[in-house]
Design goal:
With 348 residues, the protein is α/β, with parallel strands linked by helices. It is built from 12 helices and 15 strands. Strand 13 (311-316) and strand 14 (319-324) form a beta hairpin. The protein folds into 2 domains: 8-250, TIM Barrel; 258-347, Sulfite Reductase Hemoprotein, domain 1 (2-Layer Sandwich), CATH 3.30.413.10. Helix content is 42%, strand content 21%.
Length: 348
């Protein structure tokens, strides 16, 4: 939600200059499998995806892109590597934004040709630099520094676009290493006011990937760096969106849906709190209104420890209490705790 960056639009989604942080993911099936792609888009939209990115590796994918675009409820970014002609044709097929990788897209002339097509279509270009595909000459100039190479590669490509009078740009500079990623974005933010797309590339399987991404993306957002995010996991795109939105919620950058405050469980807990929380998550997964809800396993400390919650329950042996803003309003038997909580939430 950086206020100092320029404003661009991907379809109808604003990015930069204080716009809400948009959450993206990428389709994880073959682009040519149109039904499967549309199903994944439907699934991620249901959990709050703002923008979808689709890989375009060949001509058959281009044909599919046009059909997908006609049915997608959210903007589509066409992800292009190596062949600049695919980027131009993806623009003609209706893509809302083009992502190019400076490490493999080719010469300055090719980048200019893409820029001409994007300018005519009035869509932005993401200059997406990855640590694993930086040009050797840039690495050599930067004496092997991944951080400096990421920044230099991005800014050199931006300069080419600006020379052609193209300014609808956003930038990413991702590594699989958390520290390199954070340092690259911090440095990049000092040299440019274009919107920045945050993420840790190839962050790995679900659990370690969530940790790496949360540290990197969260720390940058706390520095007021970043305008749109993608959590890259070897996992479902639905999971990527959920994690991304939870990062934003934890930083107070997204006020939507239920934020759960729940204790980690200790010897004082006399209820199956894990089961209770899971049931509550399932019952409230489609609620859009923002509420802080506490589910605590101890009636002694629960209400006091969760004063910041709008409403909550604290369970004890055989029963518990319902409380609002830390104040107990009702005592309940154990079997009524969840239903009573849901009833009060519906009243909000």
């Amino acid at each position: 939600m950086a206020s100092y960056t320029k404003r661009i639009y991907v379809g109808n989604v604003p990015i930069g200059k204080g716009a809400p942080i948009s959450v993206q993911t990428m389709i994880k099936v073959k682009t040519t499998n149109i039904d499967a792609v549309l199903n994944q888009i439907k699934e991620v939209v249901e959990v709050g995806c703002d923008i979808i990115r689709i890989s375009i590796p060949d001509k058959d994918s281009l044909k599919a892109l046009k059909k997908i675009k006609n049915k997608s409820p959210i903007p589509i970014i066409a992800d292009i590597h190596f062949d600049y002609r695919l980027a131009i044709k993806a623009i003609l097929s209706g893509a809302d934004c083009i992502r190019i990788n400076p490490g493999n897209i080719g010469s300055k002339e090719r980048i200019v040709k893409i820029a001409k097509a994007a300018k005519k279509a009035n869509i932005p270009i993401r200059v997406g630099v990855n640590a694993g595909s930086i040009k050797e000459e840039i690495l050599n100039k930067c004496k092997g520094s991944i951080v400096d190479s990421l920044v230099k590669s991005a800014l050199e490509t931006v300069k080419v676009l600006e020379e052609y009078d193209f300014y609808q740009i956003k930038i990413s500079a991702k590594a699989s290493n958390v520290i390199e990623t954070v340092l690259a974005y911090r440095k990049l933010s000092k040299y440019t006011d274009y919107p920045l797309h945050l993420g840790v590339t190839e962050s790995g399987p679900q659990e370690p990937g969530i940790v790496k991404s949360s540290i990197a993306v969260g720390s940058l957002l706390l520095d007021d760096i970043g305008d749109t995010i993608r959590i890259s996991l070897t996992a479902s795109p639905v999971k990527e969106i959920i994690v991304g939105r939870n990062i934003l919620k934890s930083l107070g950058l997204l006020k939507e849906g239920i934020e759960i405050i729940s204790c980690p469980i200790c010897a004082r807990c006399d209820i199956d709190l894990l089961k209770l929380v899971k049931e509550f998550e399932e019952k409230t997964k489609n609620i859009k209104k923002y509420l802080k809800v506490a589910i605590m396993g101890c009636v002694v400390n629960g209400p006091g420890e969760a004063k910041q919650a709008d409403i909550g329950i604290a369970a004890g042996k055989g029963g518990g209490v319902l409380f609002k803003k830390g104040e107990i309003i009702k005592k309940l038997p154990e079997e009524d705790l969840l239903d009573s909580l849901m009833f009060e939430i519906e009243k909000f």
